[in-house]
Design a protein that fits this description.
alpha/beta, TIM Barrel, binds adenosine-2'-5'-diphosphate, oxidoreductase, NADP-dependent oxidoreductase domain-containing protein
Length: 306
Amino acid sequence: LNKVYKLNTGASMPAIGLGTWKAAPGEVEAAVKTAIAAGYRHIDTAFGYGNEAEVGKAIREALAENGLERKDIFVTTKIWPTFFRPEKVSEGFKISLDRLDIEYIDLILLHWPVGLNPEQGVAIPRLPDGTRDIDTTVTPSITWTALEKVFEENKDKLKAIGVSNHPIPILEELLKTAKVVPAVNQVELHPYNPQQKLLDYCNSKNIHVTAYSPLGSTDSILLSDEIVGKIATAHNKSPAQIVLSWGLSRSSILPKSVNAERVKANADLIELSAEETQQINELHKTHGKRFVRPDWGVKVFDEEFE
Ligand code: A2P
């Protein structure tokens, strides 16, 4: 839990954060409090998860209960694609800060590399044929430029900016016009989808990679993988702890759990041997799988599991 990664802003980001996607209001508060009491110093949320207000409240209370200060905790949130028009980016940031109510945000990310039409007034606007109502007036570069401005104008309330779910071609495009290099690219990453090429690319550009769904998301087949199971038995750990130990050696990780025992267990990790790491590195070749793949109607994902 003490491991940190340095961002290109100079800030230190705790390498293990609590993921809160699908952690519903009503259960997320207890999970955040358990995590902070257990030593987690990084909490990840998003406007799109619909739980920022509760996450923020839990953080404020947990800081007070554990004798901690605001600066002791790193909080990441994400701007939803209906706020991607340049004139709406600032509103997206302000809504999140308002809901979280925690003085400032350590890191805010553009949640997806695609904008959604804000005019329907819903989170996922759809066209009559059922496909997503993409906002064709924006590109990742346009929105990024607007976010840079928000960052510049709110240095006391926003400490770093980054992206999420951005593949290499879109990052290349974005970097052509970027004045600020994204501090982070948060993507789905686990042994069945190790994203080695993207990781290497981001490292070469000084963009830190954070793994979401590091356990392979809900009902994960990854946790019943035979090789992972064997390594777990050998160390007297759970498959989840082995998968997370592998993840922590490559990037920061955001395991999600609303169960107190699992929240604690997910931060009790080990060093794997080179041979074990290699065995896990091989798994994607036979079991390549992306668990989170909403249909954007435009190309977002690489289909290789390299
Ligand atoms: P729960 O919240 O009930 O613990 P990911 O982080 O890859 O998105 O995975 C989250 C999923 O894995 C959730 O369904 C979560 O359920 C479950 N999970 C979290 N920690 C563990 C663990 N240590 N062992 C098994 N399942 C876990």
